């Protein structure tokens, strides 16, 4: 079932509605036409009328089309109406016992300090950071079963920037003693963040990565269905696409920061991804987008693999390194993103049953209920039930992994598995130092039950790979990529990284 088919259903059911007919025409616009000021102005008027009528069904179709909800003034109200239709949150009800302080709040503060880097006005930046911490802590204290992960703050930043866009566009607060929270609708903002978290992000907010890796496997299965050749080259049946973890956990918010000087059009791309995800009520959509992003770059990826096949002794390192490098080069290509989103609009709205059968998803996954691509309304009590069951299942998964396995065997298996990722061209002691550092990180990751260090390791490696993006990779000439590995690893988790 394609997104266009879903739109047609809405169109047919509102055939006598002039606004909907206009919305259908707007959906049909090509990407070139949709970028015109006239098209934006026309769609703004249509969306404004739909908001007045609270026509949620037609709003969904507008969010799926080119331009999404057009601008953040309209977008914040559209998101609120859609999310309110998907779950009803009654603030007078305590859905589970609150806590005065959540165990992950220190990490929230550290991540907030690194947020909103493109904001010049220091007063505004400071207030944005405080608002970020306040919102995240409010959610975590209200639903203490949720575990914070590094990347969640990127998603919350998207909502904050959407709701405060008018203030940010004015380049600051005047006078300086103005409070940001007085200039935005805090009630709607809080509702949107809370609803989105409960409906879309539960899989990522466990105390292990198991359910997150399940979603990565869906990407592999989607690739197999769309391009068996690409799937075979990368041997995705044995190798999980770990390179996608940051994009999936943040719904591309880490890749396409909402605020970075000069990237206004990329902000629009990111907001459109959220428009489509919320309109379709689907966490399948970011996975499908990532699949399309990979396949659109497949020729260049294959070319670079062939050009550098003799550089790496480890095929896993070669494939993942090339993908990271090529995608880093392409992430700021606005035309590529427009093409990917347009392809996605004509793609399957959700992963097919055939795809899902290839992946062992926990039966309470967001992909199967609250964000499965079939718009519906859920009670918070039902979502809390899903959350409780996911938490129990997650604990069982963890116990099954280690049940009856001797400590010595665990250590040996870990060293062997890690050794698979290590460059072979360095001497024994360099490899040992790298192993020690990684083992230390994994131990700390397990004891703190935080994703921050793992993602930091991923970002450290991707940053080094990004250095190669200025050339035809030419990895033969780069001998220092993995030199002194323990130095960088020991920096992970440092508050100022």
TrEMBL record:
<feature type="domain" description="Rab-GAP TBC">
    <location>
        <begin position="69"/>
        <end position="281"/>
    </location>
</feature>
<dbReference type="InterPro" id="IPR045913">
    <property type="entry name" value="TBC20/Gyp8-like"/>
</dbReference>
<dbReference type="GO" id="GO:0005789">
    <property type="term" value="C:endoplasmic reticulum membrane"/>
</dbReference>
<dbReference type="GO" id="GO:0005096">
    <property type="term" value="F:GTPase activator activity"/>
</dbReference>
<dbReference type="Pfam" id="PF00566">
    <property type="entry name" value="RabGAP-TBC"/>
</dbReference>
<protein>
    <recommendedName>
        <fullName>Rab-GAP TBC domain-containing protein</fullName>
    </recommendedName>
</protein>
<dbReference type="InterPro" id="IPR000195">
    <property type="entry name" value="Rab-GAP-TBC_dom"/>
</dbReference>
<keyword id="KW-0343">GTPase activation</keyword>
<dbReference type="InterPro" id="IPR035969">
    <property type="entry name" value="Rab-GAP_TBC_sf"/>
</dbReference>
<dbReference type="GO" id="GO:0006888">
    <property type="term" value="P:endoplasmic reticulum to Golgi vesicle-mediated transport"/>
</dbReference>
């Amino acid at each position: 079932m394609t997104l266009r088919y879903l739109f047609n259903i809405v169109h047919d059911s509102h055939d006598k509605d002039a606004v909907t007919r206009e919305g259908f025409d707007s959906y049909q616009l090509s990407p070139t036409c949709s970028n015109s000021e006239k098209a934006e102005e026309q769609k703004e008027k249509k969306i404004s009328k739909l908001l007045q009528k609270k026509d949620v069904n037609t709003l969904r179709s507008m969010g799926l089309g080119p331009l999404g909800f057009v601008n953040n003034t309209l977008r914040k109200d559209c998101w609120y109406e859609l999310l309110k239709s998907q779950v009803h949150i009654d603030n007078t009800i305590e859905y589970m016992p609150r806590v005065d302080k959540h165990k992950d709040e220190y990490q929230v503060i550290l991540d907030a300090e690194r947020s909103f880097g493109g904001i010049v006005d220091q007063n505004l930046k400071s207030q944005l950071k405080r608002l970020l911490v306040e919102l995240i802590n409010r959610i975590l204290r209200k639903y203490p079963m949720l575990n914070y992960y590094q990347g969640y703050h990127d998603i919350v930043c998207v909502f904050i920037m959407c709701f405060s866009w008018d203030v940010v566009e004015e380049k600051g607060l005047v006078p300086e003693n103005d409070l940001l929270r007085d200039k935005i609708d805090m009630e709607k903002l809080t509702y949107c963040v809370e609803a989105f978290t409960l409906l879309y992000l539960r899989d990522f907010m466990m105390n292990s990565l198991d359910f997150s890796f399940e979603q990565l496997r869906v990407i592999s299965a989607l690739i197999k269905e769309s391009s068996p050749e690409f799937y075979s080259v990368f041997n995705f049946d044995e190798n999980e696409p770990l390179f996608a973890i940051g994009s999936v956990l943040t719904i591309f918010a880490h890749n396409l920061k909402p605020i970075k000087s000069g990237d206004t059009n990329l902000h629009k791309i990111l907001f459109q991804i959220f428009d489509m995800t919320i309109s379709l009520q689907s966490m399948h959509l970011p996975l499908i987008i990532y699949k399309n992003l990979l396949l659109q770059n497949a020729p260049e990826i294959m070319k670079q693999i062939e050009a550098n096949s003799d550089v790496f002794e480890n095929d896993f390192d070669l494939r993942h390194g090339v993908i990271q490098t090529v995608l880093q080069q392409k992430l700021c290509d606005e035309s590529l993103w427009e093409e990917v989103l347009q392809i996605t609009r004509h793609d399957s709205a959700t992963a097919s049953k055939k795809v899902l059968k290839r992946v062992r998803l926990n039966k309470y996954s967001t992909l199967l209920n609250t964000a499965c691509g079939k718009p519906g309304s859920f009670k918070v009590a039902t979502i809390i039930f899903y959350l409780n069951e996911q938490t129990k299942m997650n604990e069982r998964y963890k116990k099954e992994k280690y049940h009856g396995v001797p400590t010595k065997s665990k250590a040996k298996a870990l060293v062997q598995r890690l050794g698979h990722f290590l460059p072979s061209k360095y001497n024994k002691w360099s490899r040992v130092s790298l192993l020690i550092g990684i083992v230390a990180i994994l131990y700390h990751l397990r004891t703190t039950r935080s994703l921050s260090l793992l993602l930091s390791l991923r970002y450290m490696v991707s940053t080094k790979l990004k250095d190669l993006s200025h050339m035809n990779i030419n990895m033969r000439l780069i001998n220092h990529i993995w030199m002194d590995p323990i130095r960088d690893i020991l920096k992970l988790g440092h508050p100022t990284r």
